[in-house]
Each structure stands twice: as C-alpha cells, then as structure tokens.
Amino acid sequence: MKLQINGDSRETPALATVADLALWLDLPGYGSAIELNGEVVRRTEQAVTPLREGDRLEVVRLVGGG
User: Fold this and answer.
1) I need a labelling partner for 35 at 20 to 30 A (CA). Which of 2, 47, 48, 65 fits?
2) pLDDT in tens, 2-18
C-alpha cells in the first residue's frame, strides 16, 4: 500500500486502519497525533478509521523539554 507520510511516499504493508499505522510506526500510546487527509484523527477513532491507497498522513510526536 502506498501512503504519503509526512510528505514522503512510503510503501507499507496492507494497513486497514489508522491504529494499524500507529502500531507499524511504533508510536507511543500518548504524545503523538495523526492527521489523515487534513483532519486530525482522535485516538478513540483510530481503530475504526480506514486507510486507503494514496492517503496523506501527517504524524507528529510531541517532545517535552526546557
């Protein structure tokens, strides 16, 4: 499956949902956000939000510090 992730075209295994993508990217259960085609996907909706060939995703990991 081809997806645009953070502006880069990436070939991924067959991922059914945004939650599958989060697992594939090894994102932590907190401190990250995923935007699908310009819309933020709430964590509670990730398991039921399907991915399709060519989707555009932005993945952000929050970093703390001082």
Assistant:
1) 65
2) 999 999 999 999 999 99
Helix (H) or strand (E) holding 60: strand 56-61
Distances (CA, A) of 42 to 2, 30, 36, 39: 23, 12, 10, 9
Instruction: Calculate the CA dihedral of residues 56, 50, 40, 33 and round it to 10 degrees.
Output: -90
Q: Rounded to whole angstroms, how far apart are CA atoms 36 and 59?
A: 9
Q: Does the pTM of the predicted model rise above 0.90?
A: no
Stretches where the chain sits below pLDDT 50 are: none
Q: Facing residues of 2 across strands?
A: 11
